[in-house]
Amino acid sequence: MAKYIEIYRDLLNKIKTGKYEIASFLPTEKELSDFYNCSRDTIRKSLNILLQNGYIQKIKGKGSLVLDFNTIEFPVSGISSYKELQNIIPGESKTYVNIFLQTEVFEPIKKELAMDKGKMYHIERVREIDGEKVILDIDYLNGELIKDLSLENAENSLYEYIEEDLGLVVSFAKKEITVVKASEREMEILDMGDYDLLVCVKSYTYLDDGKLFEYTISKHRPDKFRFVDFARRNKEKNI
Fold first, then answer.
1. pTM for the whole thing?
2. From the record, what ranges are coiled-coil (predicted)?
């Protein structure tokens, strides 16, 4: 594991356990680099992850302010595998594969994958964080583009297999976020507590040649996550 990830996790643990209290400031970059025996650049990388995930706010001339938090931050604009996100998700995370099937593409998935015929993969995975099953991921992949997937790939990382084993380039995605009522089955397989709604993120993901290879439905218990994006104002000048 990279040094900056180890430091990030240690700082996060100190924030979550109250060693660094909400509304207090973290030690300076120099103090942290001395403590962890590393460069200030490494410390900056660790602090940037805390910043991106809403645990601190950098205030010019004062340092890193610890913010109040009670949810896990999921980026919306980027394309990351769950395995990659595990580096920044606090707590212990596990994946359970409920469904792994290769079958002929069927309606309505034909439309969603832009396929008239051929093989597809249907994969359902439950994500558990700190002992609670809070995410349901349902993936449909074009089996004519993504070949020879295995159960082990689904348990580990689909994108790792696609990019490293198949040598394909995952390029861009279109996403839609809604709030939906949980089905009876979802209420059974997820730890829903008092909730009966789920945040549903539908993603259409493409290779660098513009081919759609994956349609994903990802459902999250609403109290556990916040979904974030980065936006820059682009004000056109009047001509």
1. 0.67
2. none
